[in-house]
Design goal:
The protein is an alpha/beta fold. It contains twelve helices and 22 strands. The strands form five sheets. An eight-stranded mixed sheet has the order 3-6-2-1-9-13-14-12, sandwiched between helices. Strands 5-4-7-8 form a four-stranded mixed sheet.
Amino acid sequence: MGLVVQKYGGSSVADAEGIKRVAKRIVDAKKNGHQVVVVVSAMGDTTDELIDLAEQVSPMPAGREFDMLLTAGERISMALLAMAIKNLGHEAQSFTGSQAGVITDSVHNKARIIDVTPGRIRTALDEGNIAIVAGFQGVSADSKDITTLGRGGSDTTAVALAAALDAEVCEIYTDVDGVFTADPRVVKKAKKIDWISSEDMLELAASGSKVLLHRCVEYARRYNIPIHVRSSFSGLPGTWVSNENPQGDEQVEHAIISGVAHDVSEAKITVVGVPDKPGEAAAIFRAIADAEINIDMIVQNVSAASTGLTDISFTLPKTEGHKAIDALEKAKGQIGFDSLRYDDQIGKISLVGAGMKTNPGVTASFFQALSDAGVNIELISTSEIRISVVTRQDDVNEAVRAVHTAFGLDSDSDEAVVYGGTGR
C-alpha cells in the first residue's frame, strides 16, 4: 500500500466532534497499510473571523502581519487533530507549512508555491507517524517570512505535497459527496460525476465551481496527480479527477456537457471613451498588470465612426476592484479615456464540456435557455470547451437552473446532500 495525502476542509473540522470523526478516518487509512499525510484547513469560519478582527484593528493591515495572523487558524486545527489521532493510539506529528518545506515567492496574501522540500515529512513517515500539515501557508524563499496562498490554498498545499512525495492519490475531503454537474446548493437535482477529466475540472474551477481550487487542479494536471474528491461526512465513493479515465476506454465519447458553474465574486469595469488606435488596450491592461491584478473576461465594443472612441469592459475579483480603479485613474493622462464605470452586482454562468467541440447547437441551446428564463446577457466569452456569460447577480441562480435543465443534467434520483459549510 502506498502513500496517500488527505486534505480536510474547514467544515470537516469545524468542531471537536468533527475533528474526532476526521481522526478516525485517518487512522482507518493507516490501519489499511497506507502512509498518511494530512493537510488541514482552519476550523469552520476561523479564517473569516480572523479577517474581520484584523479589519476592526486596522483597515489596511500590513501583508506580513496579516499572513502571520491568518496562519494561526491552521496551526490550531493541525495540533488538535494530532491530539485526537494520538488519543486513538497512533502517533501523529503536526507541521506548519514552513516546517513541511512549502517554499513560496514573497507575495503576501496570495503567494505561489515554487518548491516543496518535505524532508521532515519523510522522516516522520519513516518513523511510522502520521504527518499533519497546516494548509494554506508556506515560507518565502527570499525573506523567510511566513506567507499564505490565498483563499482555498489548502487544496494546493495538498496536491503540491502529493507531487513532492510521489503519492498514489490526493484525497480532498469536503462537505459534499464529490463533484456535481452544478452547485448542489443552487441546483437540488445536480448529478454527482464519477470521473471528470482534469481539463474539464480546470474550466469548472476557473469558472467558479467551489469544490476545488483552480490552482490545485492546474498543479495536479501538471504533475499527473489523481485527485479523489469525497465527503468526510459519508462513506460514498466520490469523484475522481485525473488526466486519464481510470475505467480505460470504456467511455469512447465524453459527455457533451460536464457541468454548469457560476461565480458571483467578480466585478465589471468599463473604460469609457478609449481612443480606437493601436496601443490603447495595451496601456490599459499594463496598468492593471502592474497593480498585480488578474482579469477574466474582456470585451471591446466597435468604435463609433463619428468620434473614433470605443469602450472596453473587463471582469476581475471584487476584492481587487478599487485597486484597479485607482491604477487606471493614475494612468488616465497616458491612456486618454473619458471615464470609468464600476459594477459589482454581476454574476458569471459557464457551461463546460469537452464534447462541445464536436457538437453543433450547444451554443444556440445555451442562449435559448437563458432567453426562456428571461435572463439578459452583458458579456460573452468562449473557449473550445466553455461558454461563459455575465449577467445580473440576481439572475444567476435562475440562469444556472435553467441551463442545467435544458441540457438534461437534472437527476431523477434523490437530491444532492450538502452536509454543511460552504463547499470547501
